[in-house]
Design brief:
Its EC number is 4.2.3.1. Its cofactor is pyridoxal 5'-phosphate. It is an enzyme of class 4 (lyase). By secondary structure, the protein is of the alpha/beta class. It has a domain of 201 residues: Rossmann fold (3-Layer(aba) Sandwich). Helices cover 35% and strands 16% of the residues. A six-stranded mixed sheet has the order 4-5-13-10-11-12, with helices on both faces. Strands 8-7-6-9 form a four-stranded parallel sheet, sandwiched between helices. Strands 2-1-3 form a three-stranded antiparallel sheet, with no helix packed on it. Helix 4 packs parallel to helix 5. The chain is globular, with a radius of gyration of 21 Å. The mean pLDDT is 97. Bound molecules: pyridoxal-5'-phosphate (PLP) and zinc ion (ZN).
């Protein structure tokens, strides 16, 4: 049997089709491309039982991933992260079945590892020698590290303000790193210029290469496998470029077509920061795409994306699943981050904390019902953001007595 059932790529805007065995970037119409698989053929050979005994990482779903030759896989063991019950914090919200998909323990410290593992593996398969990308930090760190493992040269451009640890991850992996006094959109323009000048340079910008969606979609596959092929009622996702949300939606649709899950998808929620909420604004206005968000700012750096290339795909996923979009302010998400650590023992990243704040607000408004099964995605480790915690504690001299809190 084939290792991958990839067939071709298609444009979700103009429906034009592209070959999957050549390097592709955007459609000629400017839209991102999506990967198609021969699901009708795959359906004949593949069942949930096929997964028994497979590797405990995202490559267990290799039929539904784009790598044709297993020899091209570049892996650090990413995937199959825990789906944890969050009963104590859930009870403070009045949600009986709250779960967290915890990406805090994945290689490189954020779920960007999924996109990088699949994206870099496919780049290797297509003989890419050198890639470039703009980033808010975590994606650049993941792609730099996976590219190092693949022997591919990486050039990364990130805002000066991006978390310092992600800068260090790029530097230590030997990537060509540039900082920009500006936003990810400014970094994107710099990379765009370089890609125009050097045609051997592969543009690995979010959604300008088609394969990172495939890596991130494995979160959707895992969530339903971990729930024993039952779909939850709600999935909350911290949305910047929205790749994870697009990916989860795509994964669920593929599973419906394979007949592995019922044809009733979870309501997908795009969670953004009040200081950068273009998708929320578009959803509130019922628009099919978003507008550039001026002077965006939030401590949840991974979701500081003023205009996403795939905004129309994010909005489609929300509309089609009866989901919603909601903005959280920084103070609320920081408070939630502390609550999660105190009640559940997990140090989540600020983006992940935002999804819990969103669940709380949506339960308060009645949009989430008490008995529903709700999944909050923690997209990375709080350890990557030490500056989110202010510590004031007593300092003792040797021999002094410990205070009692
Ligand atoms: C990139 C990132 C996000 C947003 O992911 P998108 O798929 O671009 O929407 C959320 N959380 C963290 C920690 C990130 O690094
Ligand atoms: Zn097109």
């Amino acid at each position: 049997m084939e290792f991958s059932f990839i067939s071709h790529l298609h444009c979700p805007k103009c429906q034009k089709e592209y070959r999957a065995d050549e390097i592709q970037q955007l459609c000629t119409c400017g839209s991102p491309l999506l990967v198609d698989y021969d699901l009708q053929e795959l359906k004949k050979h593949w069942t949930p039982a096929s997964l028994v005994g497979r590797s405990n990482d995202l490559w267990r779903y290799h039929e539904l991933l784009p790598i044709v030759d297993p020899g091209n896989i570049v892996t650090l063991g990413e995937g199959l992260t825990p789906l944890l019950r969050m009963d104590r914090i859930g009870s403070t919200m009045g949600i009986d079945h709250l779960w967290m998909k915890d990406e805090g323990i994945i290689p490189t410290g954020s779920f960007k590892a999924r996109g990088a593992a699949v994206g870099v593996s496919k780049a290797k398969e297509l003989a890419v020698q050198e890639l470039a990308m703009p980033t808010n930090g975590n994606a650049g760190a993941a792609w730099a590290l996976y590219a190092a493992r693949a022997g591919i040269k990486a050039s990364i451009v990130m805002p000066v303000e991006a978390p310092v640890i992600t800068r260090n991850e790029c530097a230590i992996s030997g990537a060509n790193l540039n900082l920009v006094n500006g936003l990810i959109s400014d970094a994107g323009k710099i990379v765009g210029q370089a890609v125009k000048e050097y045609d051997y340079l592969f543009d690995a910008s979010t959604l300008k290469e088609p394969y990172r969606i495939e890596g991130k979609k494995t979160m959707g596959l895992e969530i339903v496998e971990q729930l024993n092929w039952k779909v939850p009622d709600v999935i909350l996702y911290p949305t910047g470029g929205g790749v994870g949300l697009i990916g989860i939606y795509k994964a669920l649709k593929e599973l419906v077509e394979l007949g592995w899950i019922e044809d009733k998808l979870p309501r997908l929620v795009a969670v953004q920061a009040e200081g950068c909420a273009p998708i929320v604004k578009a959803w509130e206005e019922g628009k099919p795409d978003s507008q550039f968000w001026e002077d965006s700012t939030t401590i949840a750096f991974g979701i500081n994306v003023p205009k996403a290339l795939g905004d129309f795909l994010v909005l489609e996923a929300i509309y089609k699943t009866d989901g919603c979009a909601i903005a959280i302010d920084d103070a609320a998400l920081l408070k939630e981050q502390e609550q999660i650590a105190r009640l559940e023992g997990v140090f989540v990243c600020p983006e992940g904390a935002a999804t819990f704040s969103a669940a709380r607000k949506l339960r308060e408004s009645g949009w989430i019902k008490a008995g529903e099964t709700v999944i909050a995605l923690n997209t990375g480790s709080g350890i990557k953001y030490p500056e989110t915690v202010q510590v004031e504690v007593p300092v003792l001299e040797p021999g002094e007595r410990m205070t009692r809190g």
